Amino acid sequence: MAKKQKSRAPAAPLTGKQKSYLRSLAHPLKPVVQIGHQGLTAGVLSALNVALEQHELIKVKVAGEAEVDAAEIAAEIEKATASQVAQHIGHTLVLYRRREQEPKIVLPRAKKLL
Fold first, then answer.
1. 109 in any annotated domain
2. Structure confidence by residue, pLDDT tens digits, 27-38
3. DSSP-derived 3-state class of residue 24
4. How many domains is the chain built from?
5. 33 found inside a domain
6. What does pTM read for this prediction?
């Protein structure tokens, strides 16, 4: 029986400083999920959710033979997984989703507006 995903509230948008910090953490990472020619399937979304829950910060590779471009699919992934794209470069996306319990990554604080 499939485990039901609980709905998450959308996270506050990442600041430039936070994205920069996440990019620096993601630099040595290898892609953990690959999106193939079938695009964003239920299986891919499930793999993304599991990887985000385990790691918080992941790289996703969009294969060259995929029917969609990484830039086109980024917003759809963000919405479906309640994650945020920290970087898009070529065929690779860096995704971040804070764990609800025992988060490992502590983001730099956003400056308050006056």
1. no
2. 999 999 999 988
3. helix
4. 1
5. yes
6. 0.84
In a domain, 108, yes or no: no
Residue with tokens 């892609």: 31
pLDDT digits (tens, 9 = 90+) for 27-69: 999 999 999 988 899 999 999 999 999 999 999 999 888 778 8
Tell me, yes or no, whether 39 lies in a domain: yes
Query: What own/partner pairs with CB < 8 Å and gap ≥ 24 does 29-34 have?
Result: 29/57, 29/58, 29/59, 29/94, 30/59, 31/58, 31/59, 31/60, 31/61, 31/92, 32/58, 32/59, 32/60, 33/58, 33/60, 33/61, 34/60, 34/61, 34/62, 34/63
Which range of residues forms the domain containing residue 30?
16-96
User: Is residue 1 predicted with pLDDT exceeding 60?
Assistant: no
Residue 30's contacts (CB-CB under 8 Å, 6 or more residues apart) are 59
